[in-house]
Amino acid sequence: MIGFLCLFTSAGIWSLNSLGVDLTALAQGASNAEMFIRRTWPLSLPSTEEVLRQTGITLGTVFLATLLSVALSLPLAVWASSVATPSPAHRLMSRGLIVAARAVPDVVLAILFVRLFGLGALPGVLAMGLHSIGMVGKLYADAIEQTSPGPREALSSIGATRGQRLLTAVVPQALPAFIAIGLHRFDINLRVSAVLGFVGVAGIGFEMAHAFARLDFGLGISWALILLLLCLLTELVSTSIRRTLLRDPGDGGTGARGLLTRWSRRSGPGGGAASPPPPGTEPPARSSRRISPPFGFDRARRWAYTVTVLAGVAVSLLGSGVLDARNTAGWAGFTTTLGLFWPPGDAGMLDGLLTALLETVQIGLAATFLGALLAVPVGTLAARNISGSRAVHGVFRGVVLAVRGLPELVVAIVFVVVIGLGPVAGVLALALGSVGLLGKLVADSLEEIDTGPLEAMSALGSSRTQRYFTAVLPQAAPALIGGLLYQLDVNIRSATLLGLVGAGGVGFFLLQATQTREYDVITLITLMTFAVVFVLELVSMLLRRAVR
Amino acid sequence: MAEHVVRNDGGHGPVVSLTGVTKEFDGGVTALRGVGFEVPEGQILALLGRSGSGKSTLLRHICCLHKPTSGSLRVLGNDVAKAHGSRLRQIRRRIGFVFQQFNLVGQLSVLENVCSGALGRLFGPRLGLFSYPRSLRLEALEHLDRVGMSAHAFQRTSTLSGGQQQRVAIARALMQRPAILLADEPVASLDPASADTVMRLLREIAREKSLTVIGSLHQVDLALGWADRIIGLRDGEVVLDAPAASLDTSAAMGVYGTAAAQEPVVLDVTG
Ligand SMILES: Nc1ncnc2c1ncn2[C@@H]1O[C@H](COP(=O)(O)OP(=O)(O)O)[C@@H](O)[C@H]1O
Ligand SMILES: [Mg+2]
């Protein structure tokens, strides 16, 4: 345990050093900031009409992409789950496809599809739609796996077929999770769309990239801020929808829904505990009976949802231009274009690539280290049982939530503009982003600790700080280390993309290769990134085992 | 109607018959050892035995959810070992099964859960009340009338109490138009008053529709007052098989004791 922390700290400090992140650099950055702010201020805002148009394109693209991934993930998840798979071969194949979808980065897919279809929304829909299967398909399979087996068994005993069991017993159970996961992916894809703009996917990201390319910082930052706002808004909406969905309304629920349910139950015929009718009473005449549910809140809401989604699909399809006739031509060149990506090649810059890859790993390490330094205090203050005051707990939970809403790459762009090109901006952006995930993890795992030892120690007259280091941290340590390793994985993956926006690492070569059309280099970079992530996975597996 | 298909023996002879049925699970557990008995049409049979004695496994065999490792099992005149695929589903759909945990789909309305009992004779998957034909919905309402739950037809099932859910589960089983009704500890999760309602309902319905009922129970008193016949299981073996009227509580308790009768008590029950 101590060994792990020493290793992690020294790796963090070594990375910070070699990337040149230190106090002087930060001070330098701060003075640069003044200059940059003068350069970007006043912000040159795009016209309202343009903002609405680009927002529409972005939301439409992200919506269609998420829907595409949901549509493709559903059958894959059914086949991949142990409860509903038609055969072990189906299971293996769909698991393989899901893993493959996660392995190919969305940016690389976007580069491929932009080459095929040209600049526009369609490459974004396809790239995000396909890549998202990696997450959506996996989580959908888990959701199916987690449905209770009782109803499935009951339907088997009725003589229902596999398809009937799936639709009647599994889908109603998993539906809230399906929708919640889709919404969650929508939020993620909205963030991703910022990056895809840099390789030619239409929308706010593209406008932003374009503005920065023309060194119009005022406009670029405006677009970045607009996207930030959009991310926070959708996050807010989708979080509240997800909360309502995932709460099983066993008691009729709360809020408007609960009120209506309780009200209709009270006024319903018979109400309370009905007993079998005494023999001799005729049941009401067949034809006059109600055989469809009364049109209540639930049905109205279902209708509203369905109509909203359908309208969204129609508007997105028409508005984003993915149905454009010229797109059909793109499919024709598919195999030729794939050929451009294979075999992988280095275009004579292997040394540069390797150096950039090392820098990428260093950015990941440094950002996770700095992020942990920030996340532990923030997370501690956000834990209900430790923070000591409701207000402090509430404020810091809010901070963590707000940071989680920030798209890292947009934050990186802001840092690049403020403190200049290079890995320092990337490290700071990812470090800040880590507070969102890691801070939440710290808070959650502290809230779950056993309070027995804590009470015993207070009885001994110990101080709060003593209790924190002796009774609280050691209990939460295994969970924290797991979280740290996960964050490191996330940060290294993100670090490979930072270069797209000029924040250091191997992503720079990704952008360069796209511009020079050396697509074989893109494949090489993708494979190199795989290797790094794979090695990291192995190392963290070993470390986890050692810590436990 | 499809419900005539399954009975293969012209409607005579025992509804269920087991000879030397043995079940060995993959893990090496032998859950049933040489179980043999016959159940005539219309009989109400209670299985007694402590937890782990093989009651659930036996009921699952009768519903064709498991197949015996060895021995022969005939249900409604069909040799279960030889049935596969749709033939197997045909047999299952004539056998209603009531579970300890009800196994209803909590997210669906009560009426839709009852309608799902007809899935075995419907073609294609269904979701939503409107995917079931009008006539089926009316039939489902009648079964809900019978169990006294039609006032709750459009309520979300998870909002019902345990006793109410079990009555809905019985209505779902009736929707299968079953020839046999199986019940695996149907009242083990219920309070005494609801348990009484459910047991009474099962018996009344069995008599009205001349159904054969096989229920596993763990309360001896309840079983004696309810069933026509008692079969006791211990470690997967039949250790008692007698008409309920011929037994008193202490004799039936022998099923649970270790020192009690080692030889099966077999009395004439079919006559
Ligand atoms: N699917 C299964 N796989 C392996 N062992 C099982 C399975 N089902 C039941 N068993 C075992 O068979 C024995 C009998 O179980 P069960 O029929 O559930 O008993 P009861 O219903 O009387 O409590 C137990 O030892 C149980 O662990
Ligand atoms: Mg059991």
Distance between the termini of chain A: 9 Å
**What is Rg of chain B?**
18 Å
* Strands ordered across the widest β-sheet of chain B: 6-7-8-3-9-10-11
Q: What is the general shape of chain A?
A: globular
pLDDT < 50 stretches of chain A: 250-282
Low-confidence stretches of chain B: 1-5, 259-263
- List the chains of the largest interface with their residue counts: A-B, 45 and 56 residues
Summing up helix and strand content along with how strands pair, one would put the structural category of chain A as mainly alpha
User: CATH homologous superfamily of the largest domain in chain B - what is it?
Assistant: P-loop containing nucleotide triphosphate hydrolases
| Arithmetic mean of pLDDT of chain B | 89
Helix-residue proportion of chain B? 25-40%
Radius of gyration of chain A: 27 Å
Number of helices of chain A: 23
Oligomer: heterodimer
The N- to C-terminal Cα distance of chain B equals: 32 Å
Which ligands, by name, code or SMILES, are bound? adenosine-5'-diphosphate, magnesium ion
Describe this protein's structure.
With 548 residues, chain A is an all-alpha fold. Chain A contains 23 helices and no strands. By secondary structure, chain B is an alpha/beta fold. Chain B has two domains: 1-94 and 178-271, 3-Layer(aba) Sandwich (Rossmann fold), CATH 3.40.50; 100-177, no CATH class. In chain B, 29% of the residues lie in helices and 23% in strands. Chain B has helices at residues 55-62, 85-92, 110-115, 134-146, 162-175, 192-208, 220-226, 249-253, and strands spanning 16-24, 30-39, 44-48, 70-75, 78-79, 95-98, 180-184, 212-217, 229-234, 237-243, 265-266. The longest helix of chain B has 17 residues, at 192-208. Chain B starts with 15 loop residues before the first strand and ends in a 5-residue tail after the last strand. At the A-B interface, helix 7 and helix 8 of A face helix 2, helix 4 and helix 5 of B. The structure holds adenosine-5'-diphosphate and magnesium ion.
